[in-house]
Amino acid sequence: MQDSLSxxxxxxxxxxxxxxxxxxxxLLLALSVTGAMAAKVGDNTIGVEFGSMKxxxxxxxxxxxxxxxSEDKTYESIKFLKYIENxxxxxxxxxENTKNDINANYMGINYDYMFYNNSKFLPFIGGTANYxxxxxxxxxxxxxxxxxxAEAGLLYMVTSEVDVxxxxxxxxxxxxxxxxxxxxxxxxxxxxxxxx
Length: 196
Prior knowledge:
Blueprint: H1 2-40, E1 44-59, E2 67-84, E3 87-97, E4 102-114, E5 121-136, E6 142-157, E7 162-173, E8 176-177, E9 180-195
Antiparallel strand pairs: 1-2, 1-9, 2-3, 3-4, 4-5, 5-6, 6-7, 7-9, 8-9
């Protein structure tokens, strides 16, 4: 009888230790996920972005009516970001790849509101504005101006230091020069970021 009582007590202790151990493991996992998310605030990030863009423009002259045309291009950029309480802010420097002799660069600022959650996927929405300068290498053709608009995307945290993201932007524009006005543009991109 006493062996049976001791066995039951030992089983209860083992069960209690097992429950306590599982609880401790669960608590540590929860804290590590929360800690990983909280550690993002204050982080600095450097990233690169590769994408495609469609630019819709209008050609205006005094001799003919205006006509609309569009250009499909690729681009790459480097960005420097800072994670803050509800998202991230940053600056971006980019270059458009053109098929002709036009050298096109831009620099801008952006803010993304991050939808923090307990997964490795982090959706975001935001706004961006940039200054663009496009110049023909062989002539005086120059376009300058500002573009601004909205962006949205999804970030995947590969590790606490590395994440990848996909996104899209729609920008209104007042970039103009030499009878050409850029009306708007759309960008779709893939990026990789290093957090430190």
